[in-house]
Amino acid sequence: MKISARNQFKGRATVLHIGQVNADVSIDIGGGDRITALITSKSLEDLGIRDGVDAYALVKASSVMVMTADTPLRLSARNQLRGIVVKCQKGTVNSEVAIQLAGGETMTAIITNESMDALELSEGAEAIAVFKSTSVILGVTL
Amino acid sequence: MKISARNQFKGRATVLHIGQVNADVSIDIGGGDRITALITSKSLEDLGIRDGVDAYALVKASSVMVMTADTPLRLSARNQLRGIVVKCQKGTVNSEVAIQLAGGETMTAIITNESMDALELSEGAEAIAVFKSTSVILGVTL
Amino acid sequence: MKISARNQFKGRATVLHIGQVNADVSIDIGGGDRITALITSKSLEDLGIRDGVDAYALVKASSVMVMTADTPLRLSARNQLRGIVVKCQKGTVNSEVAIQLAGGETMTAIITNESMDALELSEGAEAIAVFKSTSVILGVTL
Predict the structure, then answer these.
(1) Which of B22, B76, B133 should one mutate to test binding to chain A, selecting the residue with the greatest count of A CBs within 10 A?
(2) Do residue B6 and residue C115 have CB atoms under 8 angstroms apart?
(3) Which strands form B94-101's sheet, in the order they lie side by side?
(4) Could you tell me if B31 lies within 8 Å of chain C, comparing CB atoms?
(5) pLDDT tens across B42-82, in order?
(6) B137 has a chain C CB within 8 A of its CB
(7) How far apart are CA C8 and CA C1, in angstroms?
(8) Strand order in B7-18's β-sheet?
(9) C20 and chain B: CB distance < 8 Å anywhere?
(10) Which domains can be identified in chain B, with CATH numbers?
């Protein structure tokens, strides 16, 4: 697929809720992990998304936060995927962190260098990728 | 205008839908392109946005994805603007891509270097700027 | 707290509105400033957020725009926090801007270098941090 979202996960859709305006859809990406997306009910219909359909969940790396596994915090974000840090790369302002999930997929986050330092992340550490369902775009192949 | 959103498009508003909480507004930015924004109904009222009013659609470059023109994918994102790549600039972690739209305006996206490489973008290629209506802020001049 | 959101503000919550799907919550971060978050009503319930509860408002630096204080523009974004620029740091593609708010807290924004140049920001200048309520994640300690 040729779209710039660094995080592209394919999986089976489950429609959780269809409201008048918005719909909640969850995508099973394997390893026990699910990504929840909030899209418009019209898009749901246009894309033909219903239970059991294969769809892509797309998430920009800049929409993803990283939380260390021992943080005593409960968050409103509906996507919180636990995994192992497999890459930490610093740039001049931003850093890139890759977290391998249970199903083998890797989630990439772009965070600031200061956050990178504050988190004391290193390869092999456990961490949680956090993002809102509003940050997820769904795609289906033609 | 002195606001840091790299993408600032002025155009005529059309109010598509006013819900109890949220409203959908489309801005005609010329060249046949429209930008759809999801804002709160209260903001709509406060800003005095109604059909025919001039408004600015503001979109951060980091909220924009880039898709190559031949990608066989249908997306839930309501904004998908087709154009020609006029700039590809790589940084240490992130790259900047500028896409010129039909009306002459340029849309800028910040994507990761790895996405840049994967897309094989080059100046002159056709590409699509993709972003959610929730990523758009509307502005009106005082 | 060990989460990569550059902007983490602790304060007392006020629940503004609970809808069938979404809820509006405002966090008093001191100095007369409030951060409004749009979260799902289910998250509100799960986190036990109600009037008077202490909560964290988390905002990624990449979700924040910067507006100069004299910009004659009214915006749909519900969070517009005024302060003094205390840091401007340029990278190769992105720049980091820190704005000190009335209550002493600092809000960090990542903007593109070209926006940085266009805004002519400098330390000591007045500026406004702008972000949508959908960009805010709320957290409560366990």
Answers:
(1) B76
(2) yes
(3) B65-68, B126-131, B79-90, B94-101, B106-112
(4) no
(5) 999 999 999 999 999 999 999 999 999 988 999 999 999 99
(6) yes
(7) 9
(8) B33-40, B22-30, B7-18, B54-59, B136-141, C73-75
(9) no
(10) 7-59+133-139 (2.40.50.100), 61-131 (2.40.50.100)
The strand pair at C79-90 and C94-101 is best described as antiparallel
- Residue A139 is nearest to which of B75, B92, B132, comparing CB atoms? B75
Count, in order, helices (H) and strands (E) of chain B. Answer: 2, 11
Q: In chain B, which residues have their Cβ closer than 8 Å to the Cβ of C118?
A: 2, 4
Which single residue is written with the structure tokens 């973008």? B121
ipTM of the complex: 0.91
Residue count of chain B: 142
B95, B29 contact by CB (below 8 A): no
Q: Which amino acid is at C128?
A: I
Cβ–Cβ of C134/B139 closer than 8 Å? Answer: no
Tell me the C-alpha distance between C87 and C100, whole Å: 9
Tokens describing residue C47: 């986190």
Residues of B in contact with C22 (CB under 8 A): 21
Name the closest residue on chain A to residue C6, using Cα atoms: A115
pLDDT tens digits, A16-57: 999 888 899 999 999 999 999 999 999 999 999 999 999 999
C128 CA to chain A: closest CA distance, Å? 20
What is the pTM for the complete model shown? 0.94
How far apart, in Å, are the Cα atoms of C112 and each of B8, B79, B95, B135?
Answer: 13, 21, 11, 16
Note the pLDDT tens digit of each residue in C8-17.
999 999 999 9
Contact B13, B55 (CB under 8 A): yes
- Tokens 């005529």, located at residue: B12
Mean per-residue pLDDT, C69-83: 94
